[in-house]
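OP here, attaching both records as promised.
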Amino acid sequence: MTTNGFILHDTTTAAPQSAALLDQIEKGWGFVPNLHRVLAESPAALEAYGALWGLAEKTGFTAIERNVAYLAIIYENGCTYCMAGHTNLSKMAKVEDAVIAAVREGRPIADARLEALRSFAASVTRNRGVVAPAEVEAFKAAGFDNRAILDVLVLAATKLISNYTNHLADTPNDAFMKGAEWTPPNVQQAA
């Protein structure tokens, strides 16, 4: 159980629809992340997250670009669980350590194209989609197009489910996240 009273479900405690999804996740990943165990409380939430994750893989972004955007979104949402997890997933996707460190620290990335993506994804998240025309133009000037703008929204929607779930549940980190822990620079206090 999490500190906020959410159950870390497994196939024996989850509803049948969630149990089947947890079984698929374990077969694919070799374990069931705590996020998915929390999401299993709601078969719809678990299925929605899985569907969005799959759709995110179909965006026009490379694996490196996708991970940079995810990290930028996670940074803006202040999700400690996802930052730890996506730090290691980014390393697996061959994102350079310096790029990962920059995004985790809220600093610009040296690579201009990746920086445009980081900045745009962060702005979309921080401003709930209301970005200045100059930001859209800067994103496009870096070689992105309208598809990429909409693809950022797919990534943001994916992270909305996971980041908000982790905030509400206070999801504990998984073992594979050891060494990638993170504290948001501006920890928000509950109102």
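Record two, same layout:
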Amino acid sequence: MSDAHKPAADALALELRDVRKSFGKTEIIRGTSLGVRAGERVAIIGPNGAGKSTLFNLISGRMPVTSGSILLNGQNIQGKKPFEINRLGLSRSFQITNIFPKLSVFENLRCSVLYSLGYGYTFLKFLVDLDDANARAQELMEMIGLDKKRDVVALNLTYAEQRALEVGITIAGGANVILLDEPTAGMSKSETTRFIALIKQVTEGKTLLTVEHDMGVVFGLADRIAVLVYGEVIAFDTPDAVRASARVQEAYLGSSVADAQVGALEQGH
């Protein structure tokens, strides 16, 4: 992305100011305020139904906010379409893998870099001649560890490989703010460990906001953790402070599952 969209090192890359979202009379996001610093990795945790995916949809423009404002690199993005927000420097992945299943790994990545390189709409027969796009796709493919699967059709990849490809697509446009929605869901323990390392590598120097249920992933990635309960952020602090918070244990974990979940929190290094 251009330097014009890059925040200063001490600036807020993403800021939510009293964001609210209602569906009819039901308020799902209830006055959420959050500031994520440039280059910071923040995890959002909370019980099912807390509003985590809704919050991601608001930030990425897939849903309009009911009130409040969202700033990306200091610019209000309220009311902008997803592609407009993407072009301002934010990219996201989804809970359900979102790739081009009938294209090869290389073709997936090459398609994803075109706009950022200034090509816009380009007929497929000319892509082979785009040296910069081909080089960038090759670089991304090596970064996500799929260079040996270059010509494999995406639908024939393993689940973990498809998720890695989606991460490659997510960062392909050069966005400086990355949203990952449950990136390790459905992975084995060994796959998850490798994937955490991959996420750290590809988001180096970028701002990361991720929704995760796996506490091992949360504590392995996050500089700070935001705890969302019933549409409100009840804690936003370092992993150690969140782990020790009585309010988090009471409001997020609940008495019926407290023992098991507190154990997960304590072991989630």
